[in-house]
Amino acid sequence: MSQPRGLRNNNPLNIEKTKGSNPWQGEIVPSADSRFAQFTSIAYGYRAAFKLLNNYQRKYGLDTLRKLISRWAPSTENNTDKYVEFVSERSLVSPDVRITTTNKDIMIAVVAAMSAYENGINAHMRDVESGWDLFIQSIR
Q: Which residues pair with 16 in a beta bridge?
């Protein structure tokens, strides 16, 4: 069985390419994938996910799992309710409780669960934590 697209791209949360903006740290430009960004390592893919979720909170005030995932995976393209339910059950974070995207314990669990949902296999926690470390360095 071949590896899921997100993992082949080192982009475990399937972040779409953005035209005309600065590339993510560790992003391969141009991407060989027609739709999604590719990264030089899985850690950079996780870093981009943490950074993007943090941007959603800072710029748009999205402060619950439901709000964050509704923007990440809009219902026009996804079964957002199912996505929220999956991540909530896996991460043990209630969908409507306020969270902070700079809380390591919460966000490691949330992003690992999002990766599992996106790829159909469990995330390697060491990889998620490496992405967190890159993210935290970038906001200090």
A: 36
pLDDT in tens, 15-53: 999 877 788 999 999 999 999 999 999 999 999 999 999
**What are the DSSP calls for the chain, one per residue?**
-PPPHHHHTT-TT-PBP-TTSPPPTTEESS-SSSSB-EESSHHHHHHHHHHHHHHHHHHH---BHHHHHHHHS-TTTS-HHHHHHHHHHHHT--TTSB--TT-HHHHHHHHHHHHHHHHSSPPPHHHHHHHHHHHHHHH-
User: Against a cut of 0.85, is the pTM above it?
Assistant: yes
CA-to-CA separations, 108 to 19, 100, 101, 137, in angstroms, rounded: 28, 12, 10, 15
